[in-house]
């Protein structure tokens, strides 16, 4: 079998080049989409800032808060639970912190 010299003749076409009006329409559409995206990001940031600034994180047991005032308060047991059920198991022993590790009251 012999293969022809121009095996792919006519299969490939020239790439599409948009006209000036199409390029202008694309640019304006991209600007509108960019403005909408920037507005959305700013809106999410403002709402997050407002929600975090109005919350009291000192009583919520926020992550890594060693000076937590809520930890000093006595927590109530759920209805129907007695203190024996809420106590840790007797086989559980607390681990003493190392001398160079800071503790909650040291901070």
UniProtKB/TrEMBL annotation:
Keyword Transmembrane annotated: yes
Region (Disordered): 1-21, 74-107
Assigned keywords, A-Z: Membrane, Transmembrane, Transmembrane helix
Membrane-traversing stretches: 32-52
Name listed for the protein in its UniProt record: Uncharacterized protein
UniProt organism field: Hyphomonas pacifica
């Amino acid at each position: 079998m012999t293969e022809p010299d121009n095996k792919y003749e006519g299969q490939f076409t020239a790439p599409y080049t948009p006209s000036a009006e199409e390029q202008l329409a694309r640019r304006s559409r991209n600007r509108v989409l960019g403005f909408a995206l920037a507005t959305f990001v700013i809106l999410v940031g403002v709402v997050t800032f407002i929600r975090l600034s109005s919350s009291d994180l000192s009583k919520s047991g926020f992550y890594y808060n060693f000076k937590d005032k809520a930890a000093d308060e006595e927590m109530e047991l759920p209805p129907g639970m007695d203190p024996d059920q809420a106590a840790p198991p007797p086989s559980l022993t607390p681990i003493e912190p190392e001398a160079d590790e800071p503790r909650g009251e040291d901070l």
